[in-house]
Amino acid sequence: MKIIVLGTGYVGLVHAAACSEYGHDVYACDNDVKKIKAFSTGQPEQIEKFVNEPGLCNIIRETIDRYLFFTSDLESILEGTDAVFMCLPTPPNLDGSTNLTFYDAAAETMAELFAKRKDRRRVVFINKSTVPIGTARHLQDIMNKHRVENFGVASNPEFLAEGTAVVQARRPDRVVVGCDHEEDFNILRRVYSQFVHHVRIKYIETSPETAEAIKYVANTMLLTYISFWNGVGAKIGEKFPNIMIDDLRLGVTADDRISTWGSFVSNGAGGSCFGKDIASLINQLRRVNVSTKMLEASYEVNEFQKVYLIERAATEVDFQFNNKTIAVLGLAFKKHTNDMRDASSIKVIESLLGKGAARIRAYDPLANDTAREVFDPKKNILFEKIDYFDNAKEAIEGSDALFISTDWEEFRGVSRTIEELVKPPFLVMDGRRMIPDYEDLIAKNYTYLAVGSMAMGPMER
Ligand code: NAD
């Protein structure tokens, strides 16, 4: 099959690499020339500046210039194409609705070019971007407007989770394909031939609208479940004496009907999708006069949770942030990625600076460079107060308190560093419950404040 992947962000690059691994001729196309230049080198250090996913560079190294080709010149690669995957950004508008500007611009360009192609073979335009219910139909209208011939439209939403995207691309839990015509289903079956009759992977064929809805319902369900644990489970642990939140989680999730995933309480879920997808679904449902109270609550609990630990530090242990130096460990929205889109750390650092922190000593194993862009002092002069370090030790040294915001495994050993480098009084705010031996810290007079537990250790600062 000849496949074009339009947009080589996280989704596009992983999808292009995965398809090339199965012997398709994949043309990965992006209008960001810098990205294409970097990816064309096949060099991990160039690729990972833009997309850092475990295992991704290995695939690219093996398939580049054999099955995988990078280009910015869409016009030159059209002929003979069977499938075009649209992997474009769909950011939120201020009212939560989905901004289709990038998507529409790409669709219009593609329609103009495909209308002129010489070859008239069947081509399917497939939405892999997360787009509102009805967007495949909208894409069809754009193609018809430009008089593109012999085409179909499809929805094939992406369910990858950053950090494990390659593993999931090789063995997804499901592949959802929404088409109108059997010939389009057939093209997609050939693209995904390794999954169609797989014993464990659900290959689901449905209407384009249902496929679009599956993506939104799945993502809002995941965020709602996370918010349930943060809004209910964590609060029980924080407000009632003698509650062991980890035992509470184990006891509840022992029921096969209740997922372990999402039950680990935290300072909120970030990432490029949860927030914008729930906001978009709220917007879509409001338009058809459906009450969205439950979804609004999920969203609000998650946003509130990102900074709640900082509020608790002020109210429960009387910690004053003014003029203090705070170490922040973990900037990426989750471990194994350098992506900081909607990361909890952004709200954490903004809140700390807003409360008068003198300096922030930040460290992330992968995301320091991303953070330098996110916290560009040109956007906010307060960001000049952030210093970046190459390891946790350097970040902690000389600080008055510590906030752990990402679940990088290396932070599990941080109590020893604290004991070596800083003397009590010292406050540890653990947004991911990463410190197994917190009792040792308390015994040595450090103050420990973790999401899901009451404050422990000395309370007066
Ligand atoms: P991204 O912003 O990382 O990448 C999008 C890419 O599209 C960029 O490289 C951009 O340069 C390119 N682009 C924009 N306009 C273009 C055009 N006209 N022609 C060619 N390229 C163009 O986005 P992403 O994270 O890969 O997400 C893409 C879509 O997939 C979104 O709808 C998102 O909601 C959805 N999604 C993302 C994830 C995730 O974890 N990142 C998971 C599932 C679904």
Task: Give the key terms.
single chain; 461 residues; eight-stranded mixed sheet; six-stranded parallel sheet; 14% strand; binds nicotinamide-adenine-dinucleotide
What does this structure look like?
Helices cover 42% and strands 14% of the residues. It is α/β, with parallel strands linked by helices and 461 residues long. It has an 8-stranded mixed beta sheet, with helices on both faces. Strands 11-10-9-12-13-14 form a 6-stranded parallel beta sheet. The radius of gyration is 24 Å and the shape is elongated. The mean pLDDT is 97. It binds nicotinamide-adenine-dinucleotide. Residues 6-12, 29-32, 35, 87-90, 102, 105-106, 129-130, 158, 160, 162, 272-273 line the site of nicotinamide-adenine-dinucleotide.
Mean pLDDT: 97
Oligomeric organization of the protein chains: single chain
The poorly predicted ranges are none
| Total of DSSP H or I helical runs spanning 4+ residues | 18
Based on DSSP secondary structure assignment, what is the total number of beta strands? 14
| Helical amount | 40-55%
Bound molecules: nicotinamide-adenine-dinucleotide
Question: Biggest sheet, strands in spatial order?
Answer: 3-2-1-4-5-6-7-8
Based on Cα principal axes, name the global outline.
Answer: elongated
Spatial separation of the terminal alpha carbons: 65 Å
User: What Rg do the Cα atoms give?
Assistant: 24 Å
Largest sheet: 8 strands, mixed
Chain-wise SSE layout:
Blueprint: E1 2-6, H1 10-21, E2 25-29, H2 33-40, H3 44-47, H4 56-63, E3 68-71, E4 83-86, H5 101-115, E5 123-127, H6 135-145, E6 151-155, H7 165-170, E7 174-179, H8 182-191, H9 193-196, E8 202-206, H10 208-239, H11 245-253, H12 274-287, H13 293-316, E9 325-329, H14 344-354, E10 359-363, H15 368-374, E11 386-388, H16 392-396, E12 401-404, H17 414-421, E13 427-430, H18 438-443, E14 447-450
Parallel strand pairs: 1-2, 1-4, 2-3, 4-5, 5-6, 7-8, 9-10, 9-12, 10-11, 12-13, 13-14
Antiparallel strand pairs: 6-7
Bound molecules: nicotinamide-adenine-dinucleotide.
